[in-house]
Write a structure and sequence with these properties.
468 residues, alpha/beta, Phenylalanine Hydroxylase, Alpha-Beta Plaits, four-stranded mixed β-sheet, 36% helix, disordered N terminus, Preph_deHydtase_CS, iron
Length: 468
Amino acid sequence: MLSNIARRALKIRGPVFLPQVARAFSSTHGASSFISATNKTPDATPKISCVLELKDRPGALHDVLKYFWKYDLNITRIESRPKTLNALGEARFDFFVDFEANDKNAPSVQSLFASLESMTTKALILDEKDVMWFPRHLSELDLIANRTLDAGADLESDHPGFNDEVYRARRGELATVAQEYQWNEPIPYIDYTEKEIETWAIVWDRMEGLLDKHACSEYKKSFASMKEHCGYSRENIPQAQDITDYLQGRTGFRMRPVAGLLSSRDFLNGLAFRTFFSTQYIRHDSMPLYTPEPDICHELLGHAPMFADQDFADFSQEIGLASLGASDEDVQKLAWCYWHSVEFGLCKEGGEHKAYGAGLLSSYGELEYACADYRPAGGTDDRPEIKPWDPAVASVQEFPITTYQPVYFLAESLNDAKTKMRDFCENLKKPFLSRHNPNTNEIWVDRPVKRKNHPSAAAELEEEEKTA
């Protein structure tokens, strides 16, 4: 659940190939071919990263690698970059190599680079880079999942359930379930009450016809399948674990319970692991067609079905990978792109505008307002401005959080949205290139990094301040 940018009124109105060490990586930032020979925890073994530039000739890489073997230096990664031509028109290849070593001044490392000097046109050690802390393994999402900007039971005075002690207690109960969850456990089953299911049914009845009319075909296909496989119905609120099992078999996405709103950085970091932080509480029954914060109607009706589409899942992960170690400025740009796409995106389909953003797919008023060609729609005669999907423009497009959007971005297709987002992310000034390995649930980066501002240290400092 995205931070304050989602706090809105959701009103229902020439590659290397070494077969003995190859491992497939699902998602990349930066065009290159990658091979890894280690499945250790990313920060577990000291390593040195270097870049080697070689002339394009048969056997060039073999001649270089034999010196790593000669000096007993264990290679853990080799990556090639596409061939380039120098000023004289001579072909060159760059190879990025990681190898296990404690010190770049060690005799074996010095001997290696002395031997490589005559065989390469460039041989450089990449120094460790200080970056903003980011999770390197799926387990480290446990460190950020509870860094909520507000807790699930701490309601503001204008919340419909503020004076309802039973509702507040229920929110506290569900918040505790989320706070105690750990990454390698099944998501706990939530026994939703009769009143909660009645609220869900009211929203379901109001949305179902409009979704059939205005949702994109990818959503409708997934939604129909999830009715069959995940227990989606007006009489039943589906369980997050059932949805995760379904998504894992299709796109590798998973749901993760969260107690409240996260910062943009923490929320987007989760997407890098194809993980969506989801609430488990529902809006107050006194106003079933309104919620001041994302709830399960928004998460499960709006977001979850879209994560079953491969293009959309890849698109979402692109934003997440780009957020890792990014500057605060770039995180805001990515969050605003998220808002104008994953939350409120439109795409073309059969000459019509269809919704793929969850903020639209869970709000009958705004869904009609954004997609219908007739007026009045969504209770107003006004019409929004429709701009072509361009992440560079979307990343600086301001937006309201309590009213219908005055501007929507229209993609040619979900694949078009993904491709343009990937291009935008690759042009950001990133401290490193990153990849997600779905087999080990790790994030690989192309150079040594030192992660600063560790979340556990921040939590300890906050606790000290509370008790001081």
